[in-house]
Amino acid sequence: MKKSADTDSQGAIALLKADHREVEDAFEQYKKLADGDYTKKKQLADHICDELTVHMTVEEEIFYPTVKSEVNDADDIVNEGIVEHAGAKVLIKEIKAMKGDEELFDTKVNVLAEQIEHHVKEEEEDMFPKVQKSKVDLLALGKEIEQRKSGLR
Ligand SMILES: [Fe+2]
Ligand SMILES: [Fe+2]
Question: How many CB atoms lie within 10 A of CB 85?
Fold first, then answer.
């Protein structure tokens, strides 16, 4: 299939970027919550963790393997992504196991936000441009990602 700006706008990268913006917004909302509002904090933190888990799963199962096999000189950046995901998963697991009122809860969420901000920057500035220059069919890949995402929810 031929690539065009139009198909790109609904394709894999547009989808992944939309997830990134959604999670960034949720982290921003988290920062605005009142200090003692543990119920809302826990709710929003769990939502962020669940969204990130789905996002990382589709990247690891579908997007990253395609980038590795079809994009030149992308192995290192994909491997870095995999290792950064693993780091985020440690914090996600800890946050999910907490109640929200613990002393380190906010700090864990804030450190996760920082890690994700760094990771997203690398994907969007280093990895995605390489993919956009390649022959990967982003529209087909986007459909595959969408399907997997609905299976994960
Ligand atoms: Fe991502
Ligand atoms: Fe990622």
Answer: 21
Distance 58 CA to ligand 2 centre (A): 9
Length of the chain, please?
A: 153
- Gap from CA of 40 to ligand 1 centroid (Å): 25
Report how far residue 5's alpha carbon sits from residue 106's, in angstroms, rounded to the nearest whole number: 40
Q: List the one residue out of 24, 8, 15 whose CA is nearest residue 120.
A: 24
CA 36 to centroid of ligand 2, rounded, Å: 31
Residue 25 CB coordination number (10 Å): 11
Q: What is the pLDDT of residues 133-145, one digit of tens each?
A: 999 999 999 999 9
4-23: pLDDT as tens digits: 444 445 699 999 999 999 99
* Beta strands in the chain, from DSSP E residues, in sequence order: none
Q: Give which of 143, 136, 121, 149 is closest to 54, Cα–Cα.
A: 149
The alpha carbons of the chain give a radius of gyration, in whole angstroms, of: 16
pTM: 0.93
In the reported structure, the alpha carbon of residue 63 is separated from the centroid of ligand 2 by a whole-number distance in angstroms of: 9
Contact of 8 with 14, CB cutoff 8 Å:
yes
Q: Identify whether the C-beta of residue 87 lies closer than 8 Å to the C-beta of residue 115.
A: yes
